[in-house]
Amino acid sequence: MKSTIATSILAISMLALAGTASAKVSCEDVKAKIEAKLQGKGVKAYTLTIVAKDENSDLRVVGTCEGGTKKILYKRG
Q1: Which residues of 25-54 are buried (b: 16+ CB within 10 A; e: fewer)?
Q2: Whole-structure pTM over 0.70, yes or no?
Q3: What is the pLDDT tens value at each position of the chain, 77 positions in all?
Q4: Residues ≥6 apart with Cβ < 8 Å to 58
Q5: How many CA atoms are closer than 13 Å to the CA of 76, on its beta-carbon side?
Q6: I want to staple 27 with a disulfide (CB 3.0 to 4.6 A). Which of 16, 20, 45, 65 is the partner?
């Protein structure tokens, strides 16, 4: 019984770690995907900026990356 519980806890921990590792997507990869979507919609004049997640800005947040430590801001024009 104890080994079953220990095995279950270990399996859940490994799944949680795997999810965290896959969540750390490169900011450049996310930015490229956002750019492709914007270009696909015909948007021509824009700026995407990568900043720390706690940086204050009036710009629109269009993505997060590197495990939520950074965000991607969109500026029209």
Answers
A1: eebeebbeebeeeeeeeeeeeeebeeeeee
A2: no
A3: 544 443 434 445 555 554 444 458 899 999 999 999 999 999 999 999 999 999 999 999 999 999 999 999 999 98
A4: none
A5: 4
A6: 65
CA distances from 37 to 32, 34, 46, 62, 67 (A): 9, 5, 12, 11, 21
Q: Where are the beta strands (DSSP E) in the chain?
A: 46-52, 60-65, 70-76
Structure tokens at 18: 């795997």
